[in-house]
Structures are given as structure tokens and as C-alpha cells.
Write a structure and sequence with these properties.
Shape: globular
Distance between the termini: 65 Å
Bound molecules: zinc ion
Structural class: alpha/beta
Length: 351
């Protein structure tokens, strides 16, 4: 009897501990699942910027319907569609993609009942099955515990585990190198209309122009230009008081893309992340890349080491920019490796 009581007490204690641990886990999970920060702010006229946490899109309301840019994701798009219905009483007629990356381009299916989707012609190629028989990317090769050249669901870790179904193009429960290289784009609604250099859509007396941004960040990037509203929208390429993530594939590609954007006549620089700004702010991003590339080239010309260039090329004019303290030296290394011919291909494309 006594023993039984002790056992019972022990079980009760374990139960309490388990309950406590479970409660903390549940609280943490709840905190992580807090609803995304969403909102709509007016840029000018009938042009608005909409937010989903750290991602932003823009939309223009015309008397004949709405022209919007990136749908971001399905949940956000559902929310946005409801806002359109109650606030503007207009359907979406066009979805104009900035590029194919999953975190900006997903969820468009929500608007497929009324909209025409437009993207750069390379976007269609990026969403298609990838050709060839490449080896697993380095990060994935580390997950491949049984070394069979594919990633089973049980092997997947991190972002690959989280977005497994978005990577798994043929839905066979295995991720091949081709599927990993293609990206987690299964929920990207493909553009029915594509263009090469420039494309203009007109609706309700308004014009919106798209221009290709070359290979900066991805090879299917577009700037979305609203001439009447004097606004340019770009995700990941144009940033305001914020350094880019990786300058891929080359600093020259980024400089060309920013020059394409800055050749447009605009006042409002709308971005896919963080701050909005003016054309002058956007020009500062170009200046940063110019000073970065000329500074590194001068250092190499003078026979200096990477570490030495990283120490002295401080680019102080951009000290107040987001990521200056973390990304400046990385960017110097990227440009240095490019000029030295030692750059490692396949840097992770991010925002
Ligand atoms: Zn991107």
C-alpha cells in the first residue's frame, strides 16, 4: 500500500512536471504563432503599400479593378482579398511579380479567379522542373545521412524540413537536387503572361510598367513602375537605408539593376522589405555598391590582402544603414573573391 502510494505520488509529480513542461512549450508555440503584422498604408493617390510582417507589396486601385504586385503567401493574399472587397469593392485584374522567390511570389492562386499574372520570361523557367542531374547542394548533402543522393522527409532539417512540401515538385516524398535547386516554389502561381525587356499593362486609365533587372538577386527580377504615381517598387534588389543580403551573382549585376531602376522618373521608392524612401535614398544604395567595387578593386590593385581591405574600407557613409555592421565585410569578401577569380558559386539567394 505504502509503496503504491509512493509510486502514485511519483507519477503525480512526473505528471505535474510533464504538464508544466507541456504548458511552457504550448506558451512558446503560442507566442511564435502570434498573428503576422499586417496593414495597408497609402503611398499616393490610389496606390497603396501592404505589409505582411517583414514583407511588403503594393497595389493600385483603378475604376476597372486592382493592379497588384507580389501576393507574398496564401494566408496574406486571403486577408488582402477580403480587404479589397470591403474597402475598395474591386477585384484584382493583374498580379505583377517582382521575381520568383517563394517568400514574395507564393499564394497568387487566391486571385486566379479574376487576375492575369505577369512575370519575366525567366520566371517560368525557374518554376519549371530543373534540367540535368546536378549533385545535391552542399547544405543538403550534409542532411543526406544514408547517402542515396536524395533527401527523405526524415532526413530534412531546418528550412528544408519546414518547407518540404513546397520543394517536393512531384510530391513523391523525396527531394532531389533538381527540386532543391528549383526552390520551395510549389505555391507560386505561374505567370500566364511573360515579357523580356519591358511590359506595360493598362487598366481603368492607368498604366503600370515592368522592366527586367538582369541577373541581380535572381535572373527573373522586375521593377514595377507606376508613372502617374511616380513610384517604383522592387523587392530585394532596391533597398532603402539597408544593405542587400548577398550581392549575387555579381556586384556589376546589382549596379546595372539599380541603374535601370534609377533611370525611371519617380519620387517614391517602395521596397519589398523594411523602409520605403525617396529616389535619393535609392541612389545611395547604388553609391554604396559603386564605392564597394571601386574600393576593393583599388585595394587589389595596390596588392593588399582581403583582411586589410576589410579593415580600411569602412564605407562610413552607410554606417546608419541596416546590416552595415554585419554585411559590409561579407560584401567586400564577395567582390574580392569575384575579382580574384576565387568566388564560390551558389551563394544562398535570400532577401
Ligand atoms: Zn528574393
Amino acid at each position: 500500500m505504502r509503496r503504491k502510494e509512493i509510486i502514485m505520488r511519483k507519477s503525480l509529480t512526473s505528471l505535474l512536471i510533464v504538464t508544466f513542461v507541456f504548458a511552457s512549450v504550448a506558451t512558446t508555440a503560442l507566442a511564435q504563432q502570434k498573428p503576422p503584422a499586417r496593414g495597408i498604408v497609402n503611398i499616393t493617390g490610389q496606390l497603396y503599400r501592404a505589409q505582411n510582417d517583414n514583407h511588403y507589396t503594393v497595389f493600385l486601385v483603378t475604376p476597372e479593378g486592382i493592379i497588384m504586385s507580389d501576393p507574398i503567401n496564401r494566408d496574406f493574399s486571403r486577408w488582402l482579398k477580403a480587404e479589397f472587397a470591403t474597402r475598395f469593392k474591386q477585384p484584382v485584374r493583374y498580379v505583377l511579380y517582382t521575381h520568383s522567390d517563394w517568400d514574395h511570389a507564393s499564394g497568387g492562386v487566391v486571385f486566379a479567379d479574376t487576375a492575369e499574372f505577369v512575370g519575366h520570361v525567366n520566371m517560368r523557367a525557374r518554376l519549371a522542373a530543373q534540367p540535368g542531374t546536378p549533385p545535391l547542394p552542399a547544405d543538403a548533402a550534409k542532411m543526406d545521412a544514408n547517402r542515396n543522393g536524395v533527401i527523405e522527409r526524415s532526413e530534412a532539417a531546418g528550412a528544408v524540413a519546414q518547407r518540404f512540401d513546397l520543394f517536393d515538385q512531384n510530391r513523391d516524398g523525396l527531394l532531389t537536387a533538381n527540386e532543391l535547386i528549383r526552390g520551395s516554389v510549389n505555391d507560386v502561381y505561374p505567370p500566364g503572361t511573360t515579357y523580356r525587356d519591358r511590359h506595360t499593362v493598362t487598366l481603368g486609365g492607368k498604366r503600370v510598367m515592368m522592366a527586367h533587372l538582369g541577373t541581380a538577386h535572381t535572373d527573373d527580377g522586375s521593377v514595377i513602375y507606376f508613372p502617374d504615381e511616380r513610384t517604383a517598387f522592387s523587392a530585394d534588389v532596391m533597398q532603402i537605408k539597408r544593405l542587400p543580403q548577398n550581392i549575387t551573382p555579381t556586384v556589376g549585376a546589382y549596379i546595372d539593376a539599380l541603374r535601370t531602376i534609377l533611370a525611371l522618373d519617380f519620387d517614391h521608392a517602395a521596397t519589398g522589405h523594411a523602409l520605403m524612401g525617396t529616389k535619393k535614398d535609392a541612389a545611395q544604395s547604388l553609391q554604396y555598391l559603386e564605392e564597394l567595387s571601386t574600393g576593393v578593386a583599388a585595394g587589389i590593385g595596390a596588392g593588399r590582402s582581403l583582411a586589410d581591405i576589410q579593415k580600411t574600407l569602412t564605407l562610413d557613409a552607410y554606417k546608419g544603414f541596416e546590416r552595415w555592421d554585419t554585411h559590409r565585410t561579407v560584401h567586400i569578401a564577395q567582390v574580392y573573391e569575384l575579382l580574384k577569380g576565387t568566388s564560390r558559386a551558389g551563394a544562398t539567394p535570400t532577401n
